[in-house]
Amino acid sequence: MTDTYYLRIALPVPLRRQFDYLPLANTAASHYKIGSRVRVPFGRQQLIGFVLSIETETAVPVDKLKPITESLDSDTLVSPNILQLCEWLSTYYHHPLGEVLDLAIPVLLRKGGQISDIAEPHWRALSCKLQPSNVANSSVITGKKQLALWQLFQQQPHWRHKELTQQGFAKAQLDRLFNLGFIEPYQQLPVPHCDAASQSALTLNNEQVSAVDKISEQFGKFHVALLDGITGSGKTEVYLQLIAKTIEQGKQALVLVPEIGLTPQTLRRFQARFDVPVVMMHSNLNDKERLIAWHQCSQNQAKILIGTRSAIFTPLPSLGLIIIDEEHDGSFKQQDGLRYNARDFAIKRAHKESLPIVLGSATPALETLHNAYSRRYSHHKLTIRAGNAKPPRMKLHSILHQPLESGLALPVVDKIKQHLNAGQQVMIFINRRGFAPTLACRDCGWMAECIRCDARMTMHQYPPHMHCHHCDNQVGIPRLCPNCNSMQIEALGQGTERIEENLHQLFPGSDIKRVDRDTVRTKDAFDNLFDEIHKGEPCILVGTQMLAKGHHFPDVTMVVILDADSGLFSADFRGMEKTAQLILQVAGRAGRGDKPGEVWIQTLYADHPQLNLLLDGGYHGLADNLLQERKHIQLPPYSYMALLRTECSDKHLAEQVQNQAREFVQSWLNQYWQGNLLSINETQADTTPVTLLGPFPAPMERRNGRFRQQMQIMSHERNALHRVLEPLVHFLENLKGIQKIRWNLDIDPIDMS
Ligand SMILES: Nc1ncnc2c1ncn2[C@@H]1O[C@H](COP(=O)(O)OP(=O)(O)OP(=O)(O)O)[C@@H](O)[C@H]1O
Ligand SMILES: [Zn+2]
C-alpha cells in the first residue's frame, strides 16, 4: 500500500485522547501491527506508545504531524483481547488508555526492552562429537575437570551456563571445549521449571464435592461462582481440584491472591500438586523475573499463574479458569493511578473470554453476596471445617471497668497460660504497629502530632523515633514537652512493640514472636518466621493483619483480638463490614488442626448489637443486617458511587475545584436530564438520576501537607452515573489552573478516608 496512512497511538500521558503520527518513511501499513509498540517524539521527550489503529484520515493538519521515531515490535505485543479489555478499563475508570496499556505490560517492556533481553546463555554439544566413535577421541581433552565437564554433555547435550558454573565449572573450561569444537554457545529464553507432583488430591467432603461438580459443569462458558466457605473449610482444596480439571482439558488457570496472601507455602502447595509449570507474579519479583513469568504465560508454557492484583493483565492464550482467593480483600483495588478493582476486572475478563470465575471467601464482600442472593452468581457454601478441625468458640470479653494487665484482661492472661502450658500456640492480634499510638504531656495535654497531617505520630522503640504512618515523616522522641517543658510526657495506648515488651514480663521464658511490617521486612524473614511457627513449639505470636490472612497454623489454639473496637464507629460506611471481615479472618486462625480453638475479643462495647449479631449469627447474620441498612439508605450495592478527590497545599483551591465540578454536573444534568436524554426508564424520568454529596473535607483533611476535599457522586443506574462522569472528566481536564491541584476520580471506591 503506497497510499498515505497515519498511526493512531495511545501514549502514557494523563490526557484522555489518542495521538496521530506519520509512519517511518517507505514502510507499508502492514509493517505496523495493532497492539505493537512504537517510540514517538512528544514535546521534548521520546515516549513509547501503542498502535491502536491505522487510519487513512486525520483531524490534525498534515504539516503538524510528526513521524514516529522507531517501531519496537514486528508483531502484536498486546493481544486484541487484552487491548479490548484495556479499552473497557479506560472507559469504565475514566482513565487514559495509554496509561492503562502501560500498566498491562511488564516494566522492562514499558521501558522499551525486548523479550530477547531475558534470553540466557546456554551451551550445547555438537552432535558429531557425540558419535560413539568420537567419544573415544575425547583423549584430546586433558585434565580431570575438563573431562568431567565433557561427560556432563554426553549425559545431556544442552546446559544453561548458570547450571554449569553452579556445579563449579569455570568459563575457561567451557571455552576450551568450544575451541576444540566439542560444544557451542547459544542464547535461549528460560523455560519454566517443573517438578513431578508429590502430593495427591484429598478426598473431598460432600460440600466440597458439590462445589467442584457444579462449578466444573460451567467450564467453557462465562459463569461467576461464589465459594462461600468458613475459614478452614477447604476452599483451597476446591480450587486445586478445579484447576486439575482445567489442566486436564489442556487449559491454563489464573489464581489471584491478596497482597500478603502469596506465601511460599501457597506456592509449594500448588507446585506439589501438579505436574505442570506453576509460576508466580508478585511485587517481590524484580523486573526481569516479572518479564520471564509474563513471557512464559504468554507462550502457554506456564499452565498455572498465581499472582497479586496486576497479574490479571497477563496474556494467557488458553485460559480456562480464574480464581480470586479472599475476594473481599482490599488489596485487589489499586489505590493510585488507575484505581481498578482486579476482582471486578477479572469478572469482565472471564466474560470476554467465556470462562468461569470463582470468587472465594469466608467473608464475601457485601457487593458479592448481593450478587449471589440475586442469582447473578451461583452460590456454593462450605459450612464445616475440613478434616477433623472444628470452628473455634468465640467470646466477647467486656473490659469495661475491668483491670488490665499490660492491656490484657486477667482471665485472658490465665487462658493464655493454660494454652502455653498445654504446649500450644497463642496469637494476639492488634492492628497497630509501633510502641504506642500517642505521646502526650500529662501537665499541659500536648500530643505529638505530625506537622504535615491531621494525625498523631506513633511512637516506636526499635529504633526509637516518632513516625507518622500517613506520610512517613520521622522525628526523634522529645524528652521534654515542646509546649510546657514538662518532663511528664507519656506514651498512651498500645502497639505491637509495647504488647511484645509486656508479654515478656507477663510470661517470662516464653517464646514471643512479633509479626509486623517492622520485624518482617523481607520475604526471607517472612519465610523463616513461618517455618519457625510451623515447627509447632509453644509460643505467643503478636502481630498485625500480616498474621491474619489465609495462613494455616495448625498449632494455634487461642486467638486474642485486642482492638476490635477501633473499627466499630468508623466514618466509612464500610467500617462495620471491614471490621467483621477482619475479626473472622483473625479468629479463623484458631483451631485449624486437631485441637479445638477459642477466640477472645476484648471490647468496651460487649453489648454492641452488630458485634453480637456477628458472634451469634455468624458473618451471614451480620451481612444480611448490613445489607438491609445499605438498602434503606441506598448505599452500594444498592447504588453506584464515584468519589471525586482533590488535594492541594492551598485549601481554598482544593475546595474551589470541587465547587466548580459540582456546578458543572448540576448544569449538565439540568440541560440533558430534563431534556430526557438520560432517561433509562420512563417512569423515573422526573427523578434526578444522579445525586451529589459534598464537597466535604476528607476524614483526614490534611495529609502530607495537602488539604483534601471529596465529593460523592451517586446513581441507581450505572449507565447514568458514567454518562455524567465522562463530561465531568473532560471538564476537569480542561479546567483553567487544574495543574495546580491533584485530582482523581475513584469509581466504586472502597477507601473513603
Ligand atoms: N477434604 C479434606 N479432607 C481432609 N483435609 C482437608 C480437606 N480439604 C481441606 N483439608 C485440609 O484442611 C486445612 C484447611 O484447608 P484450606 O487451607 O484449604 O482452607 P480454606 O478454606 O482455604 O481456609 P482459609 O479461608 O481460612 O484460608 C488444610 O490443611 C487442608 O489440607
Ligand atoms: Zn504525616
TrEMBL record:
MF annotations from Gene Ontology: 3'-5' DNA helicase activity; ATP binding; ATP hydrolysis activity; DNA binding; zinc ion binding
GO biological process: DNA recombination; DNA replication initiation; DNA replication, synthesis of primer; double-strand break repair
One Gene Ontology cellular component: primosome complex
Cofactor(s) essential for the protein: Zn(2+)
Residues the record lists as binding Zn(2+) 2: 450, 453, 468, 471
Function: Initiates the restart of stalled replication forks, which reloads the replicative helicase on sites other than the origin of replication. Recognizes and binds to abandoned replication forks and remodels them to uncover a helicase loading site. Promotes assembly of the primosome at these replication forks.
Identification of the protein by name: Replication restart protein PriA
Species annotation: Oleispira antarctica RB-8
